[in-house]
Amino acid sequence: xxxxxxxxxxxxxxxxxxxxxxxxxxxxxxxxxxxxxxxxxxxxxxxxxxxxxxxxxxxxxxxxxxxxxxxxxxxxxxxxxxxxxxxxxxxxxxxxxxxxxxxxxxxxxxxxxxxxxxxxxxxxxxxxxxxxxxxxxxxxxxxxxxxxxxxxxxxxxxxxxxxxxxxxxxxxxxxxxxxxxxxxxxxxxxxxxxxxxxxxxxxxxxxxxxxxxxxxxxxxxxxxxxxxxxxxxxxxxxxxxxxxxxxxxxxxxxxxxxxxxxxxxxxxxxxxxxxxxxxxxxxxxxxxxxxxxxxxxxxxxxxxxxxx
Length: 308
Fold this sequence. Notes:
The protein is an alpha/beta fold. Helices cover 23% and strands 29% of the residues.
């Protein structure tokens, strides 16, 4: 006996699922919202032998000769309080593989008009480039307070600093983005140096990458999460070899000192961490290993549910 098969071939997907992942921290929910990724070469790394960097990437099964850098943002929600966004992604300033924050916010059911505050780890284009639509000049977070370290705002808005980089295309682009994106928010901007910047969210001063580069420690009940900003850009290399910096570090020595301090804090206190450039969804643990450290990505929590 023969049977007929009426099924047809399923279409081949042409896109990945939305970049959204939720993690409960006490009574808060922290949602990782992917802004996409940036591909580049290893020329960005400093204070490391090229062969050592390539070996570490190869050991981690990362394709060579380049690197892939995730760009993450986060939404923090707590009962009865407006949602907070940490970093605004790349907007249209970098490659078309990034700038996906608004699309993924929508996929998560989040309207950016409902965001009460945007906290910036710093004002580089992949962190502040998605505040404003450069074409329409519309604020993408129109009802949000912009919250940023006072040294960060001062650095990028300073005319002497801007004049000093004349003729350097990369730095001119960085200054241009910071000014274009942040200036329309100045009437709704609050600066900080350290301490609580939103309920349950404490800023930690992390200079080096930029003058006002900041991490944010989120605490609720007995649980904590350290969102460590740009402590690393290429985790496979910089976690194992913390002396490794990047060409974007304004003060490379301070950046290394900050990285070692934050690594020691995370490992000693067994803190759950997330980074703006850890591979999505970014939630990980850090442990000491030899003269460096090792990153242990947290297993996907399939049992996640909102509070009853």
